[in-house]
Amino acid sequence: MNSIRKIKKILKGRPTIEGAGVHLKRAFGNSQVPQFDPFLMLDDFHSSNPADYLPGFPWHPHRGIETITYVQEGLVEHGDSMGHKGVIGAGDVQWMTAGSGIIHQEMPKESPTGTMWGFQFWANLPAAQKMMPPRYRDVKAADIPEVTLEGGVTVKVIAGMVGNVQGPVKDIVIDPEMLDISVPAGTVFRRPLPEGHTAFAYVLSGEGYFDECRDAYVHETTSAGWFDTERRCVCQPETVVLFEHTGDVVQATTTDAPVRFLLVSGRPIGEPVAWYGPIVMNTQEELRVAFEEYQNGTFIKHT
After folding, report:
1. Is CATH 3.40.1050.10 the classification given to domain 7-296?
2. Does 104 appear as a known binding residue?
3. Does 62 carry a binding-site annotation?
4. CA quadruple 280, 170, 94, 207: dihedral positive or negative?
5. 84 is in an annotated binding site
6. Does residue 106 have a known ligand-binding role?
7. Which metal ions or organic cofactors does this protein require, according to UniProt (predicted)?
8. Residues in contact with 12: Cβ distance below 8 Å, sequence separation at least 6, in sequence order
9. Which strand ranges, in their side-by-side order, compose the sheet holding 65-73?
């Protein structure tokens, strides 16, 4: 019999400024390690004010992680130390494995719609793969399959498999699943997940219930206020739902409104995390070496 996962924690995105001055919401990050293992960070940049996003993320290094960029609206130009360059547009995904080291930049352009909206995840790499050669999975929106399920639920399959449909991002170390799911009003949606894999949902629009018992006080919640006297168990945009590891099914339920959310899961690594800025290793000594190499010009190992 399938066991529905319970909610471990609910978090709400907090405003922060990154890069050269990009205003965004951080859904989770350094202070949540290792709760989201193998995932390290999720940033949501969403603004109709060009001054909030045009400063971008100029040249900077990465080592020991994978960065996943998913754009909803707008355009992001990118380039790197290996000569790659291109544009990530609406609906496109870039899954970049930094591995042994890469220096790159990501620079949003003035959005054709006036709004820039996208997400960047960081996923950790195990010690055995931290120094692997860098690689890309550049996926255009047209190449991301969409599946319609019972009840009118639609799923864009970025990574993982839904039915017989395989997402275009595969052969990734942490065995991830990344789905963009839309559930109509008045619908119950269930998604099987591997036992023990870390899983979380990030709500993009609408609202839904991710807790079978619908009890706002059975899980930990972080919010802007220090004491929330009007807690609701319905989850709305810019909310992260982190599930317990036990159970093999995630459930989302809607009532009067639909909900759209990202469902992300992966195999935990269970190793020490040493993290400073854009580099994530296993020890402080490895961090020291990485930044020393960056300073003396020996950071890039593969070209």
Report:
1. no
2. yes
3. yes
4. negative
5. no
6. yes
7. Fe cation
8. 222, 223, 224, 238, 239, 240
9. 14-18, 22-28, 39-47, 116-124, 65-73, 93-97, 135-139
